[in-house]
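Ticket #4471: structure output looks truncated?

Reporter: J.K.
Steps to reproduce: submitted the chain below (311 residues) through the standard prediction queue, then opened the result file.
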Amino acid sequence: MALSEARDHSAFDVVVIGEYYFDLIFRGLPGVPTIGTDIWAEEFDWLAGASFSTALALARLGTQAGWWCTFGNDIFSRMIIEEARREGMPTELFQMVDRPVRRVSAAFSLSHDRGFVSYSEEPERLMPREALRQLKPRVLLLQGFSLDAERQALIEEARSLGILVCSDCQHIDMTLDTPSMREALLRIDVFLPNAKEAMDLTGAADVDGALAALSPFCPTVVIKCGGDGAVAMHEGRRYAVPALPVEVFDTTGAGDCFNAGFVHGRLNEPDFEAALEIGVICGSLAVTGYGGRNLPYLDDIKKYRRANAPV
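Returned output as attached by the reporter:
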């Protein structure tokens, strides 16, 4: 079933906590960049990335989502804020500081995957627990993963308020044997790694092995498998949804868009598999344009639902 309505009114159904990145995307490369060589891209664009993509996807789907993110007085922060306003995204939770907060990634996008060279002025600051108590959203969506004590305290606060806690993974240098890792996973309601992250974290040889290894710690584990769609274990049952048959243009931001679609589905769909399907639809459509900008609006989703496919 869809998540029940919150007991108290909140302006936001979802609060997304995560940093922005100003993405410079180089596409049509002859190969992966290597030291000592110059290579030329056939195409280039810049886009607002990272948690911007998640917040934008939720806004396009009609989910009331606030994005908690720190911005500075630098040109990159200003351009991201202007883009958010052009898209009609809520900006009430933007945290403004009078110093540079530059976060920049140069993405080299290949047909099968992408890589990044990134720089961040400072780590993203978490929302204070008192702010979470005041907002009391139905879902807290955390981009990235860490064992930081402040983050763990925020998660505990969310759980005490009955808020569903969803967490991405994003290339952490840890395993299940890292001290406190298993305890941290036990605090999360929904864990959303991609296939490589899940296998690196667990040491499993394949996605099903990783799913089996992670499932004892979280009620819901969703593994994003790119062109193979997604697999999940939810309350002891395995689910799998294939990706849409689309032409891949750029994979940057696809996982962030999947997260938004899945969370939207959990809030609005009658069953878990339908929510997983909306995540896959959003992730699949994201790769058909630069940096996840070919995101669907709510009215577009029904065109891609499997229920509408010809028998």
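Triage note (M.O.): checked the attachment and the full token line is present. The chain has ten helices and 13 strands.
Status: closed, working as intended.
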